[in-house]
Amino acid sequence: MLLIVCSSIFLITTLMGWGKLMENIFGKSLNGISGKILTGIFSVGLIFTVASFFIPLNLYIEIPTIFIGLFYFFKDKLYLEYLQLSKKISVILGILATVILFSASFYPFILDHFGYYVPTIKWLTEYGLVKGISNLDLILGQMSVWHIFQAGFSNFSDPFLRLNAVLLIIYGIYIFENKSWIQLIFIPVFLIFSQSPSPDLPAILFSLIILNEILSGNKNLAFLFAFSVFTFAIKPTVIWLPIFILLSIFVSGFQYNKLILGSLVFLLFIVKNIWIFGYPVFPLKVFDLGISWKPNHELLKASSEFAIVKTFDEQYSYAEILKFSWFDYIKNWLFLNGIKSVINISFVISLIGFNIFSIIKRNKITSLICISILIKSLLILSFSAQYRFFIDVFFVIFFIVFFNSLNKKNALFISSGLALIFIGLFSSPKIVQQFIPSFKLGRNLTPFEKTQLLKPSDYEYNQYNSFKIGGLKFNVSKKYTFSFDTPTPAISESYVLDYQKLGIFPQHIDKNNLKKGFIWKKLNPEEKKELDKTIEFIKKSYLQTD
């Protein structure tokens, strides 16, 4: 925990310095301490993304970034702005930061931390963006801009990958500076994202901040549109946000110059996806440009089918789902076994309720938000209606409906109560496991350990086997599904099995340079035998006792 405190101070001052630098060049877009930090996140995130095409995000890029940020922080005496905060607010922020950092010190429990977040950051720090890396392990074809941002600070400033905890502290500062008390009650819920670099947290937080800026009268739509596209690049499921800002620009009197910066950010997002995935938007097989390093068609088809199965929480097979009528499809999705049913039904009720609210309200901004969310909802429902793809909608609707409804005193009271509940759940995970058994993530929660007071808990496994198929030497985690600390190039065992079924396997574009990327190739008879032996070895390893 104490080490995260050091990281937080280091990162916040660095990002604030970068925000001031950007204000000096382009002018002020957001107000206050938090405004400078958020501007710093936006600018450094874009710089890291561009840089990652050419170089790894290692110490050689992190140290100059820190130096520039700290230079402007002290040169412009930005620390004086913290002294302008009242003593009462400073104490409350201190308590809030302590709660956040304590929660962040627990072991990561989100499964994507091990299968997606950490492997992605590992590749970015060692090689940067690698062309066609989705051919090696399809999940790596996402590479969120948030992970690029995290990777750039993971060598020295934040080796424990607790950037989300720092972001929650920044969010707390924003709430108090802007007196947006309704958002204060969200922080305890967001604590579940504090142990991992999940892109869900920045996507939701930035969405709420942008909405608050619009509702509070910020007229800088050019920056807000660019920031909304940046948020979309972090998590494309918040597609409603840039749609909303875009509609706002058209309604308020269209000026093409308001779209320039946002369009450049969007172009960077598209180029990044084409470079690593072969298509403009992961994991959709749309706008085929004939890129030579695009993933295998059958592999993408299998991924699409699995996404549909995940829609129903794997409670039905793909063959069973194909036989559903439209009525069965909706009914079975709404009434899944476990907590997912509650979430799905709540989502539908929330959408209906928000539509009614927007009609009664007859407010232009509310109507545009409603239209944008409906567009997003239709897209998600038609692709893969997993709750994690529409969880942001709950926060947005709640925020809009109860905007300016809570005063500071009540918000602090509710937030404190919720914080105690979530800290209790983190400290005593058996409560979650006993009373909500269908909540799968609860099974991965672990109790408090004293060592957390010094440094955050983290897993170390580092057991793997090495193999070679064709010209590719690769590693597979031993007796474990994910390759979170397996040396690169690593492939998840599930994809090794998929490659066997399809008769393909990834290969280097240039065997002497991993940075040149990967393509897939059909296996010849000799390579098929090598792959069969590899899979047999992997399966036998589960039968062995260490």
Question: Can you summarize this structure?
Answer:
By secondary structure, the protein is mainly alpha-helical. 60% of the residues lie in helices and 4% in strands.
Radius of gyration: 24 Å
> What class would the helix/strand composition place it in?
mainly alpha
Q: Profile the largest sheet.
A: 2 strands, antiparallel
Q: Flag low-confidence runs.
A: none
Major beta sheet, strand line-up: 1-2
Net shape: globular
**Count of DSSP helices?**
23
Helical residues, percent: 55-70%
Distance between the termini: 33 Å
Description:
The chain has helices at residues 2-26, 32-51, 59-75, 79-83, 87-104, 112-126, 145-152, 163-178, 187-190, 200-215, 221-234, 240-251, 260-277, 297-311, 318-322, 326-334, 339-361, 364-383, 387-401, 408-427, 430-435, 493-502, 525-541; strands spanning 464-469, 472-477, 504-508, 518-522. The chain is mainly alpha-helical and 546 residues long. The protein is globular and about 70 Å long. It is built from 23 helices and four strands. The strands form two sheets. Strands 1-2 form a two-stranded antiparallel sheet. The longest helix has 25 residues, at 2-26. Helix 11 packs antiparallel against helix 12 (240-251), helix 11 packs parallel to helix 13 (260-277) and helix 22 runs antiparallel to helix 23.
